[in-house]
Amino acid sequence: MKDKKGKLSLIETISLAAGFTIGSGIITQTGIGISMTGRSIFLAFPVSAILFLISFRPIFIMSALLPRTSAAYTYSKELIHEDAGRFYAYIYFLGRMTIAIFGISFAQYLSALIPELGGETAQKTIALTVLTLFFIVNLFGMKLAAKVQNIMCIILIAGIFVFVIFGIRQVEYTDYFSDGFFSGGAGGFYSAAALLYFAVGGAYIITDFAPKIQNSQKVMVKVIVGVTTAVCFMYMLMGLVASGAVPASEAAGRPLTVPADAVLTNKVLYGFFVIGTCLGALVTTLNSSFIWYSNSLIRPCEDGCFPKKWGKTNKAGVPYILMTIFYLFGAVPAVMGIDLTVLSKMSIGLTILGTCIPMAGILKLPEKYPRLWEDSKYAKRYPRWRLKIMVAVTYAILATQVYSLFAGNPLWSNVIILVYIGAVILGLAVRKYRSRTQ
Fold it and tell me: GO MF terms on file (predicted)?
């Protein structure tokens, strides 16, 4: 229940964090993770969660003390430098190619129910159709989108429990740790943990809603840690079933329908899992992503990072130009048939790279807001030297995750990213030079 000021209560905050965390990440990334590390995928989940909670500590503290909408962008701009905010906005923008993952994965899972739809042309058509459908739904505003979201989330969680309950008994425990365990070595395991950031780290998104959360200074970090831990445990069980109910080689790089086919022999339960959990997770994330991605860039548009008209809204309050751009971000890779593993590594690597930028803002927080810092519980816990260590650890974790994801990708994908980043840096340098000479 909301308080008198209309802020989110603790229960609503927990629900929001859980909703952002439980979604398509587990559906799209588990099979890819198994291809990297085999049956040790179930250990990659807690490692990913721990690294996430450690490396994101700076932004958790900043959001608790300095609640801001579009938190990462605002901290980059307000606490570091205007150009840091712009750089974050541009990296975040390209990283939204994650939206393509949902359409492509949806087509793959649907073909598990209807094998006739497994052809290349059919897969592209389905991916484009589902992207178009939810693009149109979101053009009518958040109310309609929210109604769809609430119904699908309930079905999604029920399907996860069905998969785990029926599958946990069918795992081959006798040879689980000898057949396909740590198949990719230490490097493969760490790459899988980095990839799964997309699955376990969704709770950090509530930092963007900090101004609307009741008593955010006390509950923000606790909610993120609690939700991440609970969801991670559930994902560990899913990873155990997905990699143990069938040979790891059969599950590697494949949709969750492969282990589900072995686990859920009842056709009704199998259909419920595929439709309710797999397709449900994809459409709920796709549904929320259109609004989330678009609204998160309205302020950068107002600040001139992008053309201001991109942030223009329709009668339903929807930034339709931005939403159209992100629709194309999803449609083009789907039509081109880009490999899902490559696309996942590119988009998640860029997402992690973007989150590096605002983290250093915590070093400036005590200086720019001295009274706020001194009155907080963090002042005594984190003297200057400890803040520096925190930020150094954060960058070490995030940098190695980015490297591990990009290193295994084709050259062309990394060239695209490097050229884009180079163009952004050059553009910022030219802008700075012009402002000095005017």
Answer: transmembrane transporter activity
Please list the ranges in the chain whose pLDDT falls under 50: 1-4, 145
Q: How far is CA 345 from CA 20, 303, 325, 349, 417, in A?
A: 20, 30, 21, 6, 12
| Count of beta carbons in the 10 Å neighbourhood of residue 142 | 15
pLDDT tens string 294-334: 878 888 998 999 999 998 888 877 889 999 999 999 899 88
Which residues, in sequence order, are CB contacts of 57 under 8 Å at separation 6+? 390, 394
Which pLDDT score, from 0 to 100, does residue 4 have? 46
Domains of the chain, residue spans = 10-437
